[in-house]
Write a structure and sequence with these properties.
Layout (H helix, E strand, L loop, with lengths): L18 E9 L4 E8 L3 E9 L13 H15 L1 H4 L6 E4 L3 E2 H10 L5 H6 L9 E3 L2 E2 L36 E4 L4 H9 L6 E5 L5 H8 L3 E7 L2 H7 L10 H16 L3 E4 L10 E2 L5 E2 L7 H13 L4 E4 L6 H9 L31 H10 L5 H8 L8 H8 L14 H11 L4 H9 L4 H6 L3 H8 L12 H13 L2
Parallel strand pairs: 1-4, 4-6, 5-7, 8-9, 8-11, 9-10, 11-14
Antiparallel strand pairs: 1-2, 2-3, 3-10, 12-13
Length: 483
């Protein structure tokens, strides 16, 4: 290995000539996939994804080796964004072949998926990166010669009437769980399908959610190469990556190995809206890998390698509709944790639950406020977020139309409507609206407010939810929002 490039500042796009995505390996004994990457011949990285022993991996032999290889190819490509951003070189070489759909998805995830990183690191947008990879002409051409020793059960047709597990009939979904409001709500609605629940990485709160749902949550460990953290503390360019894309594909890999028919995410409608638009007209979305655009791209790529179904079960609804449906399930209230600061890797920076003063905490509090008693909200969060003075400016930031916060929050119109709904009985909400230019009198006298809420709670027609999940999810959401 060469020595680290001499530099007195951070790396830039010309520090390295090429980022290489190297062949991966899969070890049956340890249930571990190892993903490998390199910058020129200077830095090399190895990342490990390990399935929990509690997951029921099948012993169906080699018939799924090609599908398994194609899915791990996708995971290797997408997980590479964490390392690519160290220097964001202008060329990427993939050392194995991809389907055309996989390559199309890859081009977007290394541009749109990294635009927040680029914008905040002053890297030009779009990221014009040359990607070099051979392509297969069809899923049937995906070779199984790469190291894929896991025996795996035959993937199941979601319409075939046969599922995973003794006595189970019909489709069997796998839900990657973050532990927050959306995934908890979706898991409760899909209980009739006996879902397999997984969590990726360290999550101190997931077991209490599993208890509330009366289901085991299986752990899948993702171990990032320590060199990445070392370089991030030094010369690397650092920033946000599309982690939902990575977690989605870890879920897809797990689904293939356990025989689940579908991977179901809990991404909502507002995740498709841009965080901001640059002066040059380019959209930058903190939640790009949760967007409907990316859902379609990734879904097409998964189909191209023979993988399971992939869709978001909450796609048609905005945050207010989801909040109202969640509020109607009080058994979930004490079990969830949506504050991202509770999951920060550095223990010194990690909150011990709801921090109460980040954009995510404020947005979840605000969107639940019209549908929950204040005492129940305080019990859930441990304090009244409206009574924390610095939060008043933070709530106002949620109403800005020119830029959404760099967090997984909904659109300004949703935050504004939530404040308008509670302003008649909440002086703090009325004050925030007044300070941001909305007349309190107009809010109190607005005869169209209920119609605005009714309109907001309606589902859109943009989704990829198949039957029979569709009937179950739409039925549950309809009952909740009309109550």
């Amino acid at each position: 290995m060469k020595a680290m490039p001499e530099t007195t500042s951070r790396y830039d796009r010309d520090t390295f000539s090429v980022f290489r995505i190297l062949p991966w390996t899969l070890d049956q004994t340890t249930r571990t996939v190892t993903l490998r990457y390199a910058f020129d011949d200077i830095h090399q990285f190895a990342e490990h994804v390990t399935l929990a022993a509690s997951l029921p991996v099948g012993d169906g032999g080699a018939e799924l080796a090609g599908r398994l290889a194609g899915v791990i190819d996708l995971l290797a490509v997408v997980a590479g964004v964490s390392y690519f951003k160290i220097g964001a070189p202008r060329r990427i070489e993939v050392d194995f072949a991809l389907t055309a759909e996989s390559l199309t998805m890859m081009r977007r995830v290394y541009d749109d998926g990294l635009r927040e990183f680029a914008y905040r690191a002053s890297v030009p947008i779009p990221l014009l990166t040359e990607i070099v990879a051979d392509t297969f002409t069809s899923a049937g051409d995906i070779r199984s010669s790469r190291n894929t020793p896991f025996g795996a059960p035959e993937l199941l047709d979601r319409n075939a009437g046969v599922g995973v597990g003794a006595g189970n009939v019909g489709p069997r979904p796998l839900l990657p769980m973050g532990g927050g409001r959306d995934s908890a709500l979706l898991a409760s609605m899909l209980a009739p399908f006996d879902p397999i629940l997984t969590v990726h990485g360290d999550n101190r709160f997931i077991d209490r959610l599993g208890d509330a749902l009366d289901r085991q949550v299986h752990r899948v460990e993702r171990t990032i190469d320590p060199l990445l953290f070392e370089l991030n503390r030094g010369p690397a360019i650092n920033g946000h990556v599309p982690v939902t894309a990575i977690n989605s594909l870890i879920g897809v890999l797990t689904a293939v190995l356990v025989g689940a028919t579908d991977v179901v995410m809990a991404n909502e409608r507002s995740a498709s809206a841009a965080s901001l638009t640059t002066d040059d007209g380019f959209a930058v979305n903190h939640q790009y890998s949760k967007s409907f655009d990316f859902e379609e791209l990734l879904g097409n790529a998964i189909v191209s390698v023979g993988g399971p179904g992939y869709f978001s079960g909450l796609r048609p609804w905005n945050e207010l509709a989801i909040a109202k449906a969640f509020a109607a399930r009080p058994f979930l209230h004490p079990a969830i944790m949506s504050c991202n600061r509770a999951f920060i890797r550095d223990p010194a920076k990690r909150s011990d639950g709801w921090c109460g003063h980040c954009d995510k905490c404020r947005f979840v509090w605000l969107t639940l406020s019209p549908f929950m008693e204040r005492s129940d909200l305080v019990a859930m969060f441990g304090r009244d977020l409206f009574h924390i003075p610095p939060n008043l400016a933070g709530f106002a930031e949620l109403l800005r139309d020119d830029q959404r916060p760099w967090d997984c929050v909904g659109e300004p119109s949703e935050a504004r409507l939530a404040l308008r709904l509670i302003a008649p009985t909440n002086p703090t909400a009325a004050g925030i609206l007044s300070a941001t230019g909305t007349s309190v009198d107009d809010t109190l006298l607005d005869q169209r407010l209920q119609q605005s809420l009714d309109d907001s709670l309606q589902p859109s027609t943009e989704d990829r939810i198949p039957e029979p999940y569709r009937s179950t999810i739409f039925g549950a959401m309809r009952a909740a929002v009309q109550s």
